[in-house]
Amino acid sequence: MVFSNQKPMIVGEKIFLRPFKEEDFPYIEECLKDSEVIKLTGSTTDYDKDAVQEWYNTRNKQTDRLDLAIVDQSQNILVGEVVVNLYDENSNSMNFRILIGPRGRNRGLGTEASQRMIDYVFNHTKLNQLTLSVYDFNPRAKHVYQKVGFVVENVDENELEFEGEWIDSINMKLTRNDWLVKGTVIGKTKRE
């Protein structure tokens, strides 16, 4: 068990991260059905509303992962999700991922949500590192990940076929030591 079943509320300047609520479902559904999200995450267009709703209804009970809604404070609506999952015992690490839907793009919300979640994880767990994979045709996500401290570890070539072209997957990591050295946090929050 890495996380408790008491999920945190993490408040930022533009966003807050919180456990999912039932009334979030139309907004998360909008994100998941967005053509840009489908493309950049390598998802399929197959969509089972009941299965997806059940999935999100169980996120707050999980102790082996942390799934939080990203809420835009200016609109008070869910604009995405940020997740830490897939614990690797050998490296004492977990996977990091973020999804921003159409209502939350290009305003720095993803950067702030990423930084807040990363700070929370390293301040409240003993994890050594966070890892992620991002498709090469997602420059916005690559920029955010580098901005918050992730570095390229290796590349899986030709990982995804999209519209007849093969796309590489870039594997990145952020170690606890690099996070401590970086020492910069978006906003006025200081590291504990």
Describe the protein in words.
This protein has 192 residues and is α+β, with helices and mostly antiparallel strands. 30% of the residues lie in helices and 33% in strands. The chain contains 6 helices and 8 strands; from the N terminus they run ββαααβββαβαββα. The chain has helices at 25-33, 35-41, 49-57, 109-124, 139-147, 176-182; strands at 10-11, 15-18, 66-72, 77-88, 93-100, 129-135, 151-162, 165-175. It has an 8-stranded mixed beta sheet with strand order 1-2-3-4-5-6-8-7, with helices on both faces. Strand 5 (93-100), helix 4 (109-124) and strand 6 (129-135) form a beta-alpha-beta unit. Residues 184-192 have low confidence and may be disordered.
pLDDT averaged over residues: 86
Give me the count of strands: 8
Structural class based on helices, strands and sheet pairing: alpha+beta
Major pleated sheet: 8 strands, mixed
Report the principal-axis shape. globular
How many H/I helices?
6
Low-confidence stretches: 184-192
- C-alpha Rg (nearest Å): 16 Å
Helix content: 25-40%
Which strand order does the major sheet show?
1-2-3-4-5-6-8-7
Terminus-to-terminus distance? 22 Å
Strand content: 25-35%
Question: H/E element string?
Answer: EEHHHEEEHEHEEH
